[in-house]
Amino acid sequence: MIIGGGIQGCSTAYFLSKRGQSVTLVEKDRIGRHASGVNAGGVRRLGRDFSEIPLSLAAADIWQNLGEEIGDAANGFHSCFYIKVAIDEEGRELGLERADKLKNAGYKHEIWIDADEIKARLPNLSAPSLGGLLVEHDGWALPWLIVHGFANAAKSHGAEIVERCSVLNLSRKNDIWQIDTNHGVFEAENVVNCSGAWAARIAELAGDPLPPIHAFAPMLAVTDRHSRILPAVMGVLGHTLSLKQLDTGQFVIGGGVRASASLSANKAALALPELAESMKLVVKLFPELTNSHVVRCWSGIEGYMPDNLPVIGRGQQDGLFHGFGFSAHGFQLGPAVGEALADLVMGQQPRVSLEAFNASRFCKN
Amino acid sequence: MKIDSNYDIIIIGSGPAGMSAAIEASKHKLSVLLLDDQSSAGGQVFRNIAGNQRRKSASSFLGRDYWSGSKLANEFENIQIDVITQSRVWQIGEDKSVYFSCKTKAFCAQAKFVIIATGAMERPMPIPGWTLPGVMTVGAAQTLLKNDSMGAEDAIFAGTGPLFYLTIWQYLKAGFRVKAVIDTAPSKLPFYSFLWAIPALLQIRLLVKGFQWRSFIQKNTEYFKNASSVSFKGVNKADIIHFVDNTGTKKSIDGEHFFIHQGVIPNINLSMATEVKHLWSDRQKCWYPYTDKFGESSTRGIFVVGDGAKIFGVQVAVLSGRIAAKRIANYGSGISMMSTISSLVKRGIQKSARPFLDHVFAPTREWLVPVHDNVIVCRCEALDKAEITEAINLGVSGPNQLKSFSRAGMGRCQGRLCGLTVQHMIAEHNKIAEKDVGYYRLRPPVRPITVGELAALTEHDKIL
Q: What is the SS3 assignment for B58?
């Protein structure tokens, strides 16, 4: 039984059902309704916390061959380079320091490039850059399509997906979980908790109390159509901005500016003035976007951990597994998390160590 | 001008409801900021009334009802409030901060109370060819007439509703030839509709006026009653209208300018984005914000008045604006009821004809949902009925999921032109009531704003 129909839950359902396991996924709203379906769709290894890099690299392998897993829905992924430019001395230092660390750790996917190469790659960029970090073959995706791709692929392997199904209670008898929902009682050997911002509640019901997960609503804005000027996904070192241009020519402006979210009301707020800072950066990078119209803004509810790293691994109870708290950077990891959780549930060793993501890190004393 | 940091009231819209609220508020010495997206006060119904007062030529053809706005407009001119014209409001915060853009900059003003008086919009009429150049709405035709005394010679009008008759009447009085009028109002009504005619007798003047407009039109144009199956054809622009007349005969008329209309509905984009509670009107087939008798919405301190609250027309809008401002002036003191009782009674009488009118002009299904698969439903994303149907068949539960499946409603108009159509379509497919289908979740910015405007929000001071 998987709880939560976001990217983590759906990819876990997919990898488990593909391997012949009997899977039911319950989602209290609709597949991809919250953070997984409405995020900025950045698919990046760039800028990952060092503990996340192995998982992120494993995920990138899956993304590059996504069609083999989810068929046509993989067309929702667009591979391109991801770049984070330095526009001030502070950003340059941050970038160079990171590039050094990456090199020393033996990673080759993310490298420092100089101002000339930035110019060659982003000829329309107006702000003078001092170099930047680059990853080839990252990209962006239409998140809603990808999540549904995993859900449908799981269904085709026999997984059952129940939407509008809220978990009311969890109990364990004779090594079997009883999952009480508004759609009746389900039984399962294992429960995988992929319920995002709502995961602490599920963990508590399962008798595995966790530190509180903070819910916020990362905000995004999309402009009207513009001629093509940005061939990559880009960010700015030392600033929270992500910028990409869709096939339609529209720009998606995101990068972690947050509004408040209410778990009980299921509502994500929107505070456009907070987006003003992002817009200032956009205007600096591409002055020609000054007169583009922002046609829509939106936000989704996401769960944040105190250290901004996810919880992935076994719970304290037998037959309980967690995969949540991705703190607004879980979308790219999704496929690898699903694969790793499937390994764990089936008693196998995941190909990537999940040590850093154990929930026990929060209860050292 | 300097924008105050804290007004008593911010009024959005300077139509009859907004103007009357402003006048009443200033009588109570409340500080008011009024924001309007047009260049002068009047709203749609009294559009450009100050300009037309100076230009005497317009006086005859706009009609007595239009000029009845002079008194209100003159009174409005003489009150001391802050007015910012050509400003677009794009967000109202929970703390009654109102964000708007004006002259390429974005501003924020705050108030204790907000009155939303953003009026009505025309009901979308998705029929074959409605997106072709040459096809405009009757409201647009009237806008040109009021703004610049401009009209199209030999125009063809198709549709129905009070505004439909009024505009054609004004067109004829202004001296424009009207080639044909294709009236889609059903000529036979179910008997219970006439029960509503009884309270409507309180507004007999209104009914008589309507009949006079129609008989004037019948005398002076080629008039087709009880028409159906209206469509436009043309390659680069519409050049012919096809329809079926009351005898079931197919007819075609060549033309250059076509005006369509199927009644008006509250323009709820701002109130919905402000997340006040909305209700569904089965009779008017539209959403409207919940308001109490003083106009206060489900959010304390945010009022919605005029046709934006529910379609009742200009007289009710004037009274509702006044009632809301009086309520605000006496907020919390409990004397609002007494001070507004006469306005409330007058308003009750003014409302009496509306249910009957709603029945007479109720849009039938063919004007709500396209009959043919290739009719555009979502204009911004250029999606036709077949494409929307295909998405709905995937198992869509409501308009918001439809957005993700098809991109319907994701363009600049924020769903104004497709929202009701997709709602009807989903209701029919899923066999559930329209009110249970719900509507697009509307989000700021309610009006498109530029990246530059938003970027400048925090940089400038509050001087306009």
A: helix
